[in-house]
Amino acid sequence: MKRFVAPLAVTAFLLFTAALRADEKADVQAALDREVIGPRQTLLETQDYIDARVPRMPKVQTAEEWQKIADRLRADVLTKVVFRGEAAGWRDAKARVEWQQTIPGGPGYRIKKLRYEALPGLWIPALLYEPEKLRGRVPVMLAVNGHDGNGKAAGYKQIRCINLAKRGMLVLNVEWLGMGQLRTDDFRHGAMNQLDLCGTSGLAPFFLSMKRGIDVLLALSNADPKRVAVSGLSGGGWQTIFISGLDTRVTLSNPVAGYSSFRTRVRHFKDLGDSEQTPCDLATIADYTHLTAMLAPRAGLLTFNAKDNCCFEAGYAMPPLVEAALPIYRLYGKGRFLRTHVNYTPGDHNYGADNRQALYGMIGAHFFPQDAGFSDREIPSDKEVKGKDALAVELPKDNAGFNTLARALAKKLPREPALPTDRAAAEKWQKDRREKLRRIVKAKDFAVKAEKAHAETKGNLRVTHWKLKLDDAWTVPVVEMVRGEAKATAVLLNDAGRRADPVTASALLAAGHRVLAVDPWYFGESKMEKDWLFALTLATVGDRPLGLQASQVAAVARWSAEQHKGGPVKVVAVGPRTGTIALVAAALEPKAIGSLELQGTLGSLKEIIDKNRTVDQMPELFCFGLLEWFDVKQLAALVAPRPVCFLEAGERHKAELAGLKGWYAALGSEFDPLR
Asked: pLDDT of 538-581, one tens digit each?
């Protein structure tokens, strides 16, 4: 059997570095600190990379030609983005609706409290504003809201609902996930990606909340299915365009300051949206320009604010949307059905009286065209606005949320968790699973062009700073350090970036290693402004941050093997994020990466769910579908029989990684990853 030398222990690292001379420590720190690629290189490359991959509007000549495209886009977004994994079952689940008490509204209307299931076990509180005198079929509206902690009780939203009810409409005021009564840790928007990690779309609860709301409205005996409107501000604007583009039951759509093209977003950072606005793989199918055009020939009012202090300023956000949609409306002969409205006073992020009156005017034109007395002027209703408590809807104590759903999914994952025990089966498992991992993380085999940025010698420390250009798309900074004659090469990664870890670098140098301190995408010198939001945007165009980072590390390893002719490298990673990146890189690169030393890594990807982490904290670890097939144990099994040492392994590691020693034995090695 093969035997491996035990890795250098952390205690030895610390003892040695404590004895280093101060000038030696300073030399290593200075080498790590020196700028290699500059603060904007990764940002500029990321912007260009994403922009090039956002789909453009197709050139069409007829309404029939566009209709076929729109139908296909609609079906693909629903099937390939919204209803992936277990969400496919939620799509057709029977949703319950429970009506509660009715409370007085104001002159001419009442408010009925209700709750409905977006999906089994996840209840949405809502309020139905109902005119006191209902005759025949009347228009209906789904009133959605954005990132407002008051949720459905927001004053400007209540006034909108009241005004429409006084005009004879049925209005459903729904709570948004993470706001108002649903403002809990279980509904933080960044936690929806826990479902993505499990291979089930975290976007599905958002979509189903809106779809079921329309179901509730259209089940009312007085509802007119030909007059169905949706409107909301900010995140409510996103909800409006998303449901309106994909659900053709909506016949009038008024998104307010709620979205822009992905191409606009990568240039205007304040438009970069949360998880639900930037769902995994959406932009492999459609951009928001397509969703806007998909409103045609139905009525659409695009409202933006001139001096928006939040996002989606009219001057840059609206023109690309109109440019995409208006020609499509004209193909249908419905150019007048697409309207725009820009609010100048106050002009900030608002759904105030001016924007509301633009909605009333649109409603009058399309839902009450024969009513000569219909007015777009707001009916004063400020005194009818109610407090949160008065509008509260009773919810089940065990109401499901993102974390609740993810925990339930994770219990059954990964699929086929057991590892084969005989060598032939083990080797076949590795071959098959390595290809599956490549597909899940969207791995790439980058070609490397190396540019020497700087070189110097301080005492016996030789330092070279490299810019590694990968496929002419990405530039990775690498600091190469050598003392004397290197016996082997180690690639060093750290969650805090290379500058934060002179201790590990010094210990590796002392052990005779050539050290390649690397900052892959999103880390250290490769970190950038709005970084986690760009991680979401990278995933929406079809890539995966984890796959990009792991592919970069693998490319560095291959370059080193060729550059230094020293055989496979050891990868040393400090932290749960780079530790996972290193595992994936080694699993994908069996030749150039010879061993791993992981300090502070996860014992299981389920820790992300158990601790209710959100995507902004460690975006690459929410890779869509990773946990469905791979946990840390399975990733380590792909690296074997090469040594993977989990330094300072805790009880979680021992419990989750039990059996790996036997796996190594099946592959002809006596190595124990946890010793």
From this structure: 999 999 999 999 999 999 999 999 999 888 999 999 999 999 99
- CA dist., res. 325 & res. 71, Å (int): 15
Q: Quote the tokens at residue 671.
A: 């190595």
Amino acid at 614: T
Whether 103 contacts 158, CB under 8 Å: no
Fold of 13-51+413-666: Rossmann fold (3.40.50)
Q: How far apart are CA 552 and CA 662, in angstroms?
A: 31
Q: What are the residue boundaries of the structural domains of the chain, listed by start?
A: 13-51+413-666, 67-393
Phi, psi of 143 (to 5 degrees): -100, 115
Contact between residue 202 and residue 274 where contact means Cβ atoms under 8 Å apart: no
Phi and psi (nearest 5°) for 504?
Answer: -65, -40
226 CB burial (10 A radius; 0-12, 13-18, 19+): exposed
Cα-based torsion angle of the residue sequence 657, 663, 669, 671 in order, rounded to the nearest 10 degrees: 10
Residue type, 589: E
Q: Which residues of the chain have pLDDT under 70?
A: 1-20
Q: Top-level CATH class of 67-393?
A: alpha beta
Residues 6+ apart with CB under 8 A from 587: 434, 437, 635, 638, 639
Q: Compute the distance between CA of residue 259 and CA of residue 345 in angstroms, rounded to an integer.
A: 20
Give CA–CA dist 575/634, Å, rounded: 19
The tens digit of pLDDT for each residue in 377-421 reads 999 999 999 999 999 999 999 999 999 999 999 999 999 888 998
Domains 13-51+413-666 and 67-393 share a fold: yes
